[in-house]
Each structure stands twice: as C-alpha cells, then as structure tokens.
Amino acid sequence: MKYRQRTFYTDSQKSEMWDRWQRGESLSSIGRRFNRASSSIYPFLARTGGIRPAERVRSRLALTLSEREEISRGLITQMSLRAIARSLQRSVSTISREVRRNGGTKNYRATLSDAAAWDRAHRPKPCKLAGNDYLCRAISAKLARKWSPQQIAGWLMRKHPDDEGKRVSHETIYRSLFIQTRGVLKKELLVHLRATRSIRRSRHATLKRSGIGKFNDAISIRDRPAEVDDRAVPGHWEGDLIAGSGNSFIATLVERHTRFVMLAKVSNKDSHSVIQALIKQSCKLPKELYRSLTWDRGCEMAGHKAFSWATNIDVFVCEPHSPWQRGTNENTNRLLRQYFPKGTDLSIHSQAKLSAIARQLNERPRKTLNYETPAERFQACVASIS
Questions:
Q1: Quick check: 256 and 231 in contact, CB under 8 A?
Q2: Residue 35 carries which DSSP code?
C-alpha cells in the first residue's frame, strides 16, 4: 500500500502563508503558490483557528547567547561567579541561578543552556475563561441566543463595571471559539456566529479594496464597434470560464455571427494560463475570423494586453455584474453543462475530448440559424475569405 508523502513547510514558507492569508488570499490561491492543493494549506491554518500565532521574542532582560558563552569561558578558566557577574554587569544571583539550573560549574554549556532557557520561557498565559465557570456559562448562553461576541462583551462590561473577573473582550471570545486547544468554549457554538466559518478570517481581509484581481485598463464593451453588436460581420467572439470541482476550469469561446464554439483546456484560473490557452486557440483560425474578444471582468483576463499584443485581437470587457452583455456565451455555457455537469472534475478531459464535444455541439442545428448548424455557417465564412 502506497502512502502519501507528508508535506513539511519551512519557517519562511509558513510565514508567507500567514502573510497571504491575512492579506485576504483564498486557500486555493495560497496552495497554487506552493504547488499544493488547498487541502494541504487548510490544516496548517486551522491548527490555530485561522489566527496567526504571536511571534515569540526574548525578553530584553534575559541572558543572551553571547553572555552565556562568556559564563562558560569564565567557568573553564575557574573565574568566580562574582567576577563573571562583574564582567557582564549582571547580579551575582542571576549568574548563580543560570549555572545551577544548567548543570553546575563542571557541566555548564552555553548552547545547551540557551536552548533550555528558550524552552522554559515557553509558558503561555492561561486564557481568562479557563476556570471561570460564570463567564463560560454566560457566554455560551448568549451565543446560543445569536448574540455576537462584541454584544456579549459590551453587556458584561455594563453589567459588571467594577468586577474585572466577570468581564472579557470580544477578541478573547473569538479566540476561545476558534482555537479549540484552549478547551473553554465548545466548537458547536461556532454555528451561532453570523459568519459560520470553521477558521477565522477578518472581514477586513480582502483583496477587493487593494485592486488585486481587478483591471481597469481594458476597453469597455460600450466602446465596441457597431458591427460587433449587430452580428452582421463574422469574427467577433465572446468568452468565459466554466468551473468544476478541484479548481478545474475550461475556457469557452463562441463566435457571435455563426454561434461556432471552441473549447480550450486551461491548467489554472490564473491570468497567464488562460491567456496562453487563448493565444493557442487563436492560431487555429484565419485572422479574418478572429477580430475581437468580449470577456467579463474576471481576474483571469488581467493580462489582456499580452493577448492583444500576441494576436492583434481587440479585447472588450463587460460592465461589472452584467453577464447578459455576453448572452451568446452564457447560453452556450448552459448547453455545455449537459456535457460538463456542475461539481464534476473538468481536469480529466483532454484537449482532444474538448474538441470532440465542441464539434458535436457545432453540428447541432440551431433555431436561431434557421436550423443550420454553426459548423455549416462557419465553413461558409471560411470559404468566403479563401
């Protein structure tokens, strides 16, 4: 039986994961960065409930490694503890405790002592809810009544203005819910929160306000030539992605005049993968039959300039939340769902399989074409330019 190899991440990779998560990136996006599935990223973040652990730092009062090395050298040369303390400008009791707890004058080693001190300093402060039955019962009861943690914290502060032991911040409530290792509030209470997430994410953590995933330098559909709108001239296409399970996608293209369909296999939704697939598809057509492409404002077309530069094809984008402006493509995608049901893995289909499905769709007669097929109409266009 073959077992899956366990994935280990370095400290720098873990730090980058937290940075991306706090910026608002999705699990799938973070997984693509490390060439892993989102299921590989989720357990790492869920270990602390989606809340980044505080970075550990040494106290400015603690002995440093260089000071411990000075202590070790002093003991080897048989210096007294008082002399070592004087050279380090530390109290004798500090040096005495350091030597006594780390093997004595004969077995003291600087590196081992420094590592032991770091481990001993790992004493997390107990959660305020731990052992406080009143707070746990009160918070659980209010959560069950759909109160938010902020409402609960405010109510406790108003009810017990002079008793700090019966007050708690909303942040402590959130952390106690999402970090189950604290063992104070039951995980089942999470369902009473308005946002029923299994791991925490700030409502301010989003890429939408930063401009990432958006592009504003494309030509609007309002500036599209009139010949595109009236479908009188062939060569103007509409495109989109249809999504499947497991982060799988297929690029769909349909010609407005003939309703001719082309399908392209894409490895990812990122702009580079989609643009390269579209460039490859454009090479299969005469230039006269591929003049423009209309797409929505999805981030997969952020590299539209590279596409236009490589193909000399104009790209127009729809207005936000206006899929009806690509109605031909939307109707075609609905037909394609007969071959690619929602929730299925689209990555299993080869390009040859996609081309075969497109051919089958193009050979179906259409009422809007007076029951001619898209293939017949498109072939007539090819013949007219040759």
A1: yes
A2: T
pLDDT digits (tens, 9 = 90+) for 153-167: 899 998 898 888 888
pLDDT tier at 366 (50, 70, 90 boundaries)?
confident
pLDDT in tens, 239-294: 999 999 888 999 999 999 999 999 999 988 888 889 999 999 999 898 889 999 99
| Alpha carbon 104 to its chain's center | 51
Q: Same structural domain for residues 158 and 254?
A: no
Q: Which residue segment(s) compose the domain that 36 sits in?
A: 11-46
284-305 per-residue burial string, b: 16 or more CB within 10 A, e: under 16:
ebeeebbbbbbbbbbebbbbbe
Q: Is 82 exposed, middle or buried (0-12, 13-18, 19+ CB in 10 A)?
A: exposed
| Same domain assignment for residues 116 and 145 | no
- Give, to the nearest 10 degrees, the angle between helix 304-311 and helix 271-282: 20
Structure tokens at 116: 């032991």
Contact 215, 222 (CB under 8 A): no
Using CA atoms, how far apart are residues 74 and 69, in angstroms rounded to an integer?
A: 8
Same domain, 16 and 91: no
